[in-house]
Amino acid sequence: MPRDTKSVSAIMAAVKSRDTTPEIALRKALFAMGLRYRLGGSSQGSALPGKPDILFLSARVAVFVDGDYWHGNQWKLRGHKSLEEQLAGVSNRSYWLTKIKRNMERDRRVNANLKKAGWKVVRIWESAIMKSPERVAAKVAQVVRKMGG
Question: What is the reported pLDDT for 123?
């Protein structure tokens, strides 16, 4: 059953873009492993495309924590065949399809721009972090060490 516009607006207004539960869980796990990082909002990160969530400056690794819904992964988690199927019963379906697809395209563009600038990009789904922050942190650590950090 579709939600009314007021309910959807209230939910969307409450969505955080920084310091989300998955971001904090990953940062704590990385710190516990002895890895030190900068937050993407720092002066070093503000000049980078896409606003990375976590930066390893010396290794030139940019980490993004991608929300499953906003970046186009939730349909898979819910067992749908496609994003279009997930949003089949949603009011304002075309708006959400366009928005999420635009986010996915922006992610691809940001990845390419960072790579061109000499950065290694790591994108992690929020669901993976919530399932096992330590496992995800270990994967990030592997990339950082490989890149010389």
Answer: 97
